[in-house]
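LOG
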Amino acid sequence: MKKLVFLLFAAIILLPVAFAKQGHMKLLAVRETEAGYEGGIADLYLEIKPGSGRVFLETFPLTRTDTQMSTRFAKAIACDAISMDCDDVDFFYTITADSAIIAGPSAGSSIAILTIAMLMDFKLDESLAATGTINSGGLIGPVGGLKAKVEAAKRAGLKKVLIPAGEIIVKADNSTTDLENLSRELGIRIIEVSTLSDAVKEFTGKDIEQKFKSIEISDEYTGIMKNLAKELCDRSSKLKESFRETRNIGNFSSSNGINLTAKGREAFEKQTFYSSASYCFGANVEFSALLLLSKNLSKEEMAKEIIRIKKDIAGFRNDVESRGKKTITDLEAYIVVKERLAEADDSLDQALGALNDTNRTERAARAVAYAAERLNSAHSWSAFLGASGKAFNLNADVLKKSCQNKISEADERKQYVELYIPNSLANIEREIGQASKELEKGNYELCLSIASRAKADVDVILSVFGVESGQYNDLVSRKLEIVKNSIARQAAKGIFPILGYSYYEYASSLKETDIFSALLYSEYALELGNLDIYFKESNGKSNNFDIGVDSKLIVVFFIGVAIGAVAVSLVRKKAQRQKSNARR
């Protein structure tokens, strides 16, 4: 009987093993030494089994930076890149090295590559290795220690190294290294890649990218944004009528508002409606501040105006919070509206503080004007609430988890950058702190937005890290092309990212005049244009991914089952003979 139990137990244990798959690739890393950073090679393993979408990570020894969130994010990006719902698969990642390494976000691209290869059953060329962060939209971002990593790859006998595009010239420790020269010197090929799909093709020869010639802009988005821009620009024109003659009040001049109004109209004619709305909003603040100053309101009257606007904000906030959120468009619209209401409230608080100083009347007027226009803008953006689209599960628990994940991603990315640029991210640390405060208050949508922007801000710094200024235009152009394809892909899935597209449009309009703002808004477009990876469709739709089986292990499993069945039959016959003999 004991043998029977053992055989049946063995058969049960063999079942999940038979349905598991394992994969491996080399991982480029650096380790900290007394002399500085030294390149090293680690081994990255992945085992996938039928499960519930869990992600596990083991590192031997512990990595110098936290790699847990990068692993989870890379897995999510990989599943999204091949349009797979991975909720029925468990992922077991293991990183082993001879000594403690700095992994963190720089391992992201390798983790995503291996994940796709395993899920798609692609064969990996293990004579290659890659390094780079993995970002929303499948963008492969810059990392540190490239020279050391290439040298380590050569020592390990690798033939090719994939690096993030734009990092062929490396600046570090007041020196510049041309990796093309290093490539020739070491006899190892270095290939620049921009996206996850580029990297997967190098490793496997398989093309996973969906290329779109253009973005299919939602008619609903165009109609609402056009009306939004028109409302704001019509308001600019009405306010401008109060200043037919050029007037100056204190440090304020109507000329700035007039110029912004003209830019808004020009952008409207080009049908770049978000840019048009942004310019006209700026004009409205200028004109509203001038109007307030021209009234010569007393402190008491200004205080009453502040209280009135605060009541309007509170009333509108209650109205918005009472509305349901079903689609990603609802979520993004809710974020925009709540952000504007929060900014309006903060601005009014600043105005109250300025009223206590007789020399800060102008500052108080501008703060009140900004708050009033922010409230007006929030009303305009609320038109997107209730727009059509795929329904997602956006309950409080899911939103809370997405917020927590995004905070962790931003913090992990910040820690990584600070290894190479110490004490440089105080502002981003404050943003992460603000996101954490919104999390504690239960404002999960605001938390998600603030943390997303914090992560984008870190990525902007990382993207220009070691990059020559002459390459910035190429960097922005490359990033905008990736953003464009990402948005087009979202639109093809039936999810039009209103924030992602708006920021993409704005970044494109800024490219020729303000390269750093263009870079920043392109990062915002990526982070806020791919929020769906954190949520599930409310219908519980699944791709029912077939994980595949190891044929040898499945044979072993069925042999085990057969042995168990035979054992059961023999035991039953023996028991029957014993009973028969007992009767005699």
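LOG (cont.) second protein
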Amino acid sequence: MLDQTIPSAPASARAASIVRTERRADGVAVLTLDDPAESHNTITPALVGELSAAVEAAFADAAVRAVVLRSGKKDSFLVGANLDFVRSIRFAQDAEEASREVARRFERLGAGPKPVVAYVHGSALGGGFELALACTASIATDDAKTALGLPEVKLGLIPAANGLFRIAERAGLRAALDLGLTGKNLRPAAALRLGLVDDVAPAAVGLETAVRLASRLADEPGHARALAKRRRRRGVGEQLERALLEDNPLGRLALFRRARAETLKKTRGYYPAAERVVDLLARFGARGFRAAADLEPRAFGDLVVSETAHRLIDLFFAQTALKKDDGLAPSERAVAFPVERVAVLGAGFMGAGIAAVSARAGLEVRMKDTDDAAVGRGLRYVKDLFDARVRRGSMTARDRDAAFARLSGAIDYSGLRNADVVIEAVFEDLALKHSVIRDVERRVRETCVIASNTSSIPITRIAEASSRPEMIVGMHYFSPVHQMPLLEVIRTKASDPRAIVTAVALGKKQGKTVIVVNDGPGFYTTRILVPYLNEAAHLLAEGAPIEAVDAAMVDWGFPVGPFQLMDEVGIDVGAHVGEVTEAAFGERMRPPPAFGALRVDDRRGKKNARGFYLYGSAAPRRRTVDATVYDVLGLSPKAGAVTADEIALRCGLAMVNESIRCHGDGVVSGARDGDVGAILGVGFPAFRGGPFRYADALGMPEVLRRMRSLEQRFGARFEPAPLLVEMARSGRRFYA
């Protein structure tokens, strides 16, 4: 398929070429990849065709001794396959043929008559990393923007140009499994340690370093062998591990048996790409490179046309679109205030997390709490987060020290005069928040945006204490802040558009995917979570065991079950949120009466080691239900009281229906934001595409039929959303 797109004329003859060739006086040809139609280079038939033609021309040119590949983009090398192209493929055979062709052409880079060196500055992801691995050698810059990785599994796909096997050859099967299954990025220094790049250089001299290496490889044929030997150099411990685990059949059997078990435990069979990664590397370990490379295109083709890949790619495009969205309506226009200094009020778990992502984003941060001990705990929490990043190689020691130096603590409001945004992360108490708002407003500039990190209290009510309500917004972060990717920005009817775009810009700078929602009790994410958790509570009241409910929802695709989630968030926090939503929505949001006993018994979940599960030194290694919670609730669970299918039906549809209600009420602006918020904020299964895509997949009449059936059995909490009723009658969908 790719052969058909290779231009018959040389790339230089085309008006908008992707690959430019510079023949230097020293005999090195520098090939620059620079797709004029894209902000980042991506693998397309056109790029592969032009690159192949340019490389072959360099190989045939007697004046060229060696080749260096580089990018013409400012901060990226090549970021993988063009997903518009991938999404356009309708037949598995077409994807298989494309994979074989790209792999063949990449292999030519390292097997040709002249050395080819990849100069990697910026992101080299997916096929970009595979391209660098296929070259004779590679140089990466030490720039913060340079990252290498194989993120395909996050899109429901697998690497398709033999990159997994080249990693296994150099760094071993365990490293290949880790990179292939997690999709994580490597910093250049970590890639160098694994032998996945050959040198790391400052960006100022990176290209010349690559040119010198290419020249040396041309002059000294034995240098390529020396590089290959150096890549495989390992310490005694690593050599022993490779010998025991990877280089003998029994060791490999144990390695892959464990990898399969752990993968299935995480994916529940819903993400087949991860299982294919294990299959391919097992074949590589048992039968070698060629056998694995022959199987890879077929696996890739099957995955490209799978429903899972389509949903995950849809999610990727939605997140990409949100990066360009300022959260305002098309008729609104506003420019964000510059943000250089942020104040965070509250140094607890949430406040410290917000401070950490802000300092890491390059902002000056002042973190305030009521006493020195609390501030000290917050600073220690941030320091521990940064230290962990350094240990994992995702942050350098220099960057850690610089980020931590941007953070300061205080027990008073000193320094707030210079703050551009103040984020309060105090307890969920309206009177306390009113007091904080009044104290802050007396000390900040009129253009300072004041944000509340509340998870349920309407921002309009918080803004009642403000003399400038137009500058009050909600910024609902999720716990733990440094890991959860979503930020929910809440606007009121009084919100100044400049305050909204400022909050959105700050969230993006902190590395968050941001959705803007309209104010209301529980906003969007909390509001759709409450009926889901309440339904789990109703199932427990009917006799379903805690572990059965959690297992059913994990099997349906949630990362954790509802009772484990309540323990993690805090049963007391959940009870408070439930009071807010019940007051607003009545019987539809009412939990079973017995659950009030949890507060009387001081059950707050994991944080005080008193929840639905056992914690602390008394807890066994395997997660175990605290059986005493049944006595507190006055319940007697019975295995099989409710089937797993019914548990999933009731909890899942409770969230879907409330999501549709939020859309109809204007809380979310559209299905895209609703799906992203549900997946990234509350763990709705990504492979199902979010509640709105899931409803589309079932069909509105079928969703309505199921809701009517549940309403007849259980009453008002399953009353279908008015928008659902209307769409079922009109035959409309959320997505075209």
